[in-house]
Amino acid sequence: MAKKIIVLGLGNILNRDEGAGVYALKELEKILPEKIKAEVELVDGGVLGMDLLPYVEQASHLLILDAVDGGAQPGEVMEYTKDEIELFYSGRLSWHQLGFQEVLAVAKVRGKYPENVYLIGVQPADIKTGLGLSRKMKTSVQRMAKRAVEVLEAWLGEIKKKNISTC
């Protein structure tokens, strides 16, 4: 299968900080170097749930940006690797995440789970109904985007290295 890198920004922008993943994706679009933009697909997944299954299943590398309830201080950025993202989470990883975790589970059952999955999340401060991020979250979203660039650079470097060694 050809290597395909997809970045999904998840969240509900109508619930303030719950939309952090979508805002982080927009920030990433601003700072992502053009050479990397040409190699990845950026997707505003909002709260689309199962409609995101085709994106997950076609990805070899899936980077997820999202608001995460990790029990941390508001604004704290957290990272989870493929093995740390539980498919059938007994609690709530995010306020809309149960639907997306089911997407990941379906992809796994169908044998189309991405070989690389990485989640960059942030602990929200305010998830009440309203537009825009709380003040505390603006710098956190920027940190998420900067970290996303680093993850994408690393993945692209690994893919290039593998392609050179298989030639």
Could you characterize the architecture of this molecule?
With 167 residues, this protein is an alpha/beta fold. It is 40% helix and 19% strand. The chain is built from 5 helices and 5 strands. The protein has a 5-stranded mixed beta sheet, with helices on one face. The longest helix has 32 residues, at 135-166. The chain starts with a strand and ends with a helix. The model is unreliable at 87-97 (pLDDT under 50).
In short:
By secondary structure, the chain is of the alpha/beta class. It has helices spanning 20-31, 34-37, 53-58, 97-109, 135-166; strands at residues 5-10, 40-46, 61-67, 77-81, 116-122.
Question: Could you name the CATH class?
Answer: Alpha Beta
Looking at the structure, what is the overall shape? globular
Write the element-wise H/E pattern from the N-terminal end onward: EHHEHEEHEH
**What structural class do the secondary elements suggest?**
alpha/beta
Strand order of the largest sheet: 2-1-3-5-4
CATH architecture: 3-Layer(aba) Sandwich
Describe how the helices and strands are arranged.
Elements lengths: L4 E6 L9 H12 L2 H4 L2 E7 L6 H6 L2 E7 L9 E5 L15 H13 L6 E7 L12 H32 L1
Parallel strand pairs: 1-2, 1-3, 3-5
Antiparallel strand pairs: 4-5
Helix pairs in contact: 1-5
Short descriptors:
Rossmann fold, globular, alpha/beta, 5 helices, 167 residues
